[in-house]
Amino acid sequence: MNKYLTHVLLISIFLMSCEALFSQDISNVKVFYNKHMKSLKDTSGAAPKQLKDLSYILIANSTESTFAFEKRMDMDNFSNKRHIGRSGGDGLYYKNIKTKEKLHQKKYGGKLFLISYDVNTYNWKIHKEYKIIGKYKCYKASTSYSFHSKLMDKTYQVNITAWFTPEISVPFGPAGYDGLPGLVLEAQIGGYYFVASKIELNAKKVTIEKPEKGKKVTNKEYDDIVQNSIDN
After folding, report:
1. pLDDT class for 109, splitting at 50, 70, 90?
2. Rounded CA separation 230/232 (Å)
3. pLDDT digits (tens, 9 = 90+) for 183-230
4. 6, 57, 63 from 98: Cα distances, Å
């Protein structure tokens, strides 16, 4: 049995042992998230601070989803504009588990890119720890990834924590932090947090469109483009 199948089997066994995991029968879901921030040096236990006017929308059904920043009329003037894409959130995220596609459409250097990712981007570890978000019981999951900065000549590790609810059985989440057996209602990436503020089940007039425009590149090719731009 390979590593991926073993991981899937362990997740299934864990969820079967959890109490009262009754998923809801939904045709689609619409989730509004706010972005919060907290210094990594802050060990006080205080809650992260919500960043004003940073709202995002996830639209999903049983097989596909989109996630994007909720655009404002005063895009060029509000104070937290610089935080839109920090730890994710810029551009349009799309995932289709049926066709095994995971795309991120975004601008860089004045050009539009359509970046493709492995549909199973993260190797999550699910914990027994849980908390209540809204009215939903959410379980903790964690993962990490590392990247090397040529500019700083240093390798950095990024830690990710997600809280997902199997009660809403769609495997999606904010800014591509997904792939868990339930909807992600909160995700922490470094000092930034995506926190669900409103959930609409079986929402009306929901349309999910796959992005088509932009130069098609893989995640690695896009990282190389960004790195070469920085080096030059």
Report:
1. very high
2. 5
3. 999 999 999 999 999 999 987 778 899 999 999 999 999 988 988 887
4. 21, 22, 6
Sign of CA dihedral 132, 134, 138, 140: negative
- With tokens 């098609």, the residue in question is 216
Mean pLDDT is highest, among 23-27, 44-48, 50-54, 209-213, for 209-213
The pTM (predicted TM-score) of the whole model is 0.85
CA distance linking residue 55 with residue 32, whole number of Å? 7
54 contacts 80 by C-beta, under 8 angstroms: yes
Q: Count H helices, E strands: the chain?
A: 2, 12
Strands (E), the chain: 29-37, 49-60, 64-69, 92-96, 101-108, 111-116, 125-133, 136-149, 154-165, 183-189, 192-201, 215-218
Tokens of 69: 């920043």
Residue 222 tokens, joined: 């896009």
- Across 76-93, average pLDDT: 87
Smallest CA-to-CA distance from 227 within 163, 157, 168, 152 is with 152
Q: Which residue type sits at 27?
A: S
Residue spans of the domains in the chain: they are 20-231
